[in-house]
Structure formats: C-alpha cells, structure tokens
Amino acid sequence: MRRPDRLTQAERRERTRQALLEASAVELSRYGYGQFNLARVASSAGFTRGALYHQFTDKNDLILAVIEWTRDTWLREVGALVTEERDPVAALLVLARGQAAFSRRDVARVLIALRMSFAGQDHPVGREVERTYALLIERCRDLVADGQGAGSITTDTPAEVLATALLGALEGLFIGLASRAFDEQTPPTPTPYLETLAVRTVAGVLGLKGT
C-alpha cells in the first residue's frame, strides 16, 4: 500500500496539467492569442518549458485543451445550476447570475479573448471556440423555446435570435467591465452588482417585467 501523502505518477502529471491550464487561462486573458507566450506560461505555473511540452505538443494543442477545460468548468459551475431549475425563465436568470460570477474567473475571459482574435478566420482554435459558443446558444435556445411554449417569454422573436441576443448582451456587459479586473487603480465591480446587471440584461432581452 502506498503512503497517502505520496502521489502517483499519474496524479503528479494531472496536477502539472491543471497548473499549466490555469496559467494558460491567465495568459490568454491578459495577452490574447497573438502574444501568448509558452515560456511565460511554464514559469507562471512553476515548471520548465520541457514539462509543458511533455504535456502538450505545441501552442495550439495547449490552447485547445484550455478551451475544453473552460467548457468543462462552466458546465460544473454554471450549467449544473441551470439544469436544476425546471422553470425556463428561472433557469435563464440563474444562467445570468452564474455567468456574472463566472466572468470574474480568468478562465471565463479566455473564450472572449480567443473569439476576438479569430473572428472571421478559419483556424482550429477559432473553430473550437465557435463550437463552444454554439453549444451555449443551443442550451439557451432550448430554454427560450420552452418559455415561449409556456407563455412566459414573448413569441414575437424566434428562440434562436433571442438566445443569440441574450448571450451577446451578457458578453458585451462583461467585456465592458473586464478591463477593471486588471486595472489596479480601479476597484472591480462587486459580484452582487454584476449579478444584478446581468439579470436585468437578460430580463430586458427577453421582455420580462418585474425582475
């Protein structure tokens, strides 16, 4: 029996991978794809470039892994809360609050930074980012369609359009406030205020009243 305080090789490898993914999320959030620096990522995570290349074949391989990690993190932290709500309107408002809290994480800004970097380009990273956005839009579209079917959301706009507008409005809100997170002279917007703004944004797009 191995000692409980001694990690296996697989466990050490996974810890290294997680540290590199988190450092990469910070790097992408701050500098975007163009100035993404593997040496800086490795140093920030506390490893050598050799350790990084032992985990990932190249820059794009690492970034694609970061996108997958971001998607999985969102599903755990936000998606699971949305799934718990049976009422579609309540679920969309939970999504708004969850997105607000999630947007404070470096991991959340990764997709925004990459989407801006690859807008209109045919690139493996850009395609994976768009696939992730498409999955999120699909989830919102289904909730909007359920709300329209229940009569709680207006039917004068197609569910796909409302879902796209909803996510675009939230993204615009978070982009507008994101720079504060890296400005030491400007205090970041407190999470409760950001959640309130996110809920009001979603309510406005959906035409809800009294929210």
Automatic annotation (TrEMBL):
<keyword id="KW-0238">DNA-binding</keyword>
<protein>
    <submittedName>
        <fullName>TetR/AcrR family transcriptional regulator</fullName>
    </submittedName>
</protein>
<dbReference type="InterPro" id="IPR001647">
    <property type="entry name" value="HTH_TetR"/>
</dbReference>
<feature type="DNA-binding region" description="H-T-H motif">
    <location>
        <begin position="37"/>
        <end position="56"/>
    </location>
</feature>
<keyword id="KW-0805">Transcription regulation</keyword>
<dbReference type="InterPro" id="IPR050109">
    <property type="entry name" value="HTH-type_TetR-like_transc_reg"/>
</dbReference>
<dbReference type="InterPro" id="IPR036271">
    <property type="entry name" value="Tet_transcr_reg_TetR-rel_C_sf"/>
</dbReference>
<keyword id="KW-0804">Transcription</keyword>
<dbReference type="InterPro" id="IPR009057">
    <property type="entry name" value="Homeodomain-like_sf"/>
</dbReference>
<dbReference type="Pfam" id="PF00440">
    <property type="entry name" value="TetR_N"/>
</dbReference>
<feature type="domain" description="HTH tetR-type">
    <location>
        <begin position="14"/>
        <end position="74"/>
    </location>
</feature>
